[in-house]
């Protein structure tokens, strides 16, 4: 094809629209970074509690340096997250925006999730190396990962656990009240398991995670509860046989080095009539099926720069967050599960819930 032919098919309007979109991407990336800072410093929470205030008044209330707060406010105003009143040089956070930016807004606090952007950016150089030489970036390279994941879990899993998630399994809550054996694999900092242990004292709970840091946090939060324990363990080395009535994994399988082995270990650890509740990313295994996904670009990015790479770093499959429903069903069947039902929650566009029976 000649250059003249290429020029004759060049759509100036399409090119201009694409250039404008890229400028929006740049602006949105900058806003995401500053939104993360606003969350971590408590600036959104402070603003939500104040009347229209000057940058100095906001800085004083938040215990921060005014010059930095003023520049941050510049991003928030031009990004249309915060309103500015030139007449008296005051700033105000509209309540409609506070409903998605403050800790009180959880589980709708989107500001908490913007922390993933700088977190992933911190490993950009190492990810680029992997593009050239292969391999992966291990968990140890991700600063603050477990802190961010714990906050994420608190907003998404823990807040919806008893009202939405557990009721997906018929009769499960009654069983928990009566008393059953429960394991959470890839439990992280243990927030979900600690909540269940507190609510259902007749049931017994164990949480496994490969991170010693996360397990230390889980044990500390468990305090004196005698019906829950946490252990550092690689899920692929699980040797329990026919011991549990319920096994849960919350957004954990696709990160595993050997998810195929882990699913077989879960099948092995369940009692004959046991239930496996798997929460994982709602997606299709074919990229074309995810074109309308509300956060498709974000999830593929998190997958490339965390989920996939930590698996590859451990010599694993590198399944990735967007492994999809088709692949999940295939792997569950290969693990020996014969009964799988997929459910979704009306308020949750990101996750699917697999209700899996051993027999």
Automatic annotation (TrEMBL):
Highest taxon in the source lineage: Bacteria
Keyword GTP-binding in record: no
One annotated GO biological process: methylation
One MF annotation (Gene Ontology) recorded for this entry: methyltransferase activity
Keywords: Methyltransferase, Transferase
Domain Methyltransferase: 178-289
InterPro entries: Methyltranfer_dom, SAM-binding_MTase, SAM-dependent_MTases_sf, WH-like_DNA-bd_sf, WH_DNA-bd_sf, WHD_Rv2258c
S-adenosylmethionine-dependent methyltransferase Rv2258c-like winged HTH domain span: 29-103
Protein's name according to its UniProt entry: Methyltransferase domain-containing protein
Species of the source: Vasconcelosia minhoensis LEGE 07310
Upper classification of the organism: Bacteria, Bacillati, Cyanobacteriota, Cyanophyceae, Nodosilineales
């Amino acid at each position: 094809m000649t250059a003249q032919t290429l020029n004759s098919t060049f759509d100036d309007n399409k090119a201009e629209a694409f250039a404008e979109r890229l400028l929006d991407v740049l602006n949105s990336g900058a806003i995401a970074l500053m939104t993360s800072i606003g969350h971590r410093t408590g600036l959104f929470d402070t603003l939500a509690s104040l009347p229209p205030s000057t940058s100095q008044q906001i800085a004083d209330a938040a215990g921060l340096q005014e010059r930095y707060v003023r520049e941050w406010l510049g991003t928030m105003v031009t990004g249309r997250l915060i309103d500015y009143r030139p007449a008296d040089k005051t700033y105000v956070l509209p309540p409609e925006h506070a409903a998605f930016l403050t800790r009180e807004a959880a589980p709708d606090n989107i500001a908490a999730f913007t922390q993933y952007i700088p977190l992933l950016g911190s490993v950009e150089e190492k990810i680029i190396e992997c593009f050239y030489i292969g391999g992966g970036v291990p968990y140890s390279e991700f600063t603050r990962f477990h802190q961010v994941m714990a906050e994420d879990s608190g907003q998404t899993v823990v807040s919806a656990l008893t009202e939405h998630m557990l009721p997906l399994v018929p009769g499960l809550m009654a069983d928990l009240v009566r008393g059953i054996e429960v394991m959470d694999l890839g439990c992280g900092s243990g927030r979900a398991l600690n909540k269940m242990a507190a609510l259902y004292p007749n049931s017994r709970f164990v949480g496994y995670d490969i991170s010693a840091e996360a397990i230390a946090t889980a044990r500390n939060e468990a305090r004196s509860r005698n019906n829950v324990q946490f252990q550092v363990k690689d899920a692929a080395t699980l040797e329990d046989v026919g011991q549990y009535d319920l096994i849960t994994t919350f957004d954990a399988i696709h990160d595993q080095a050997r998810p195929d082995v882990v699913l077989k270990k879960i099948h092995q650890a369940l009692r004959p009539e046991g239930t496996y509740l798997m929460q994982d990313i709602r997606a299709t295994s074919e990229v074309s099926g995810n074109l309308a996904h509300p956060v498709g670009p974000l999830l593929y990015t998190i997958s490339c720069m965390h989920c996939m790479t930590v698996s590859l770093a451990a010599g694993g499959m590198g399944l990735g967050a967007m492994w999809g429903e088709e692949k999940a069903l295939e792997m569950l069947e290969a693990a020996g599960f014969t009964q799988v039902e997929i459910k979704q929650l009306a308020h949750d566009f990101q996750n699917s819930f697999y209700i899996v029976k051993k027999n």
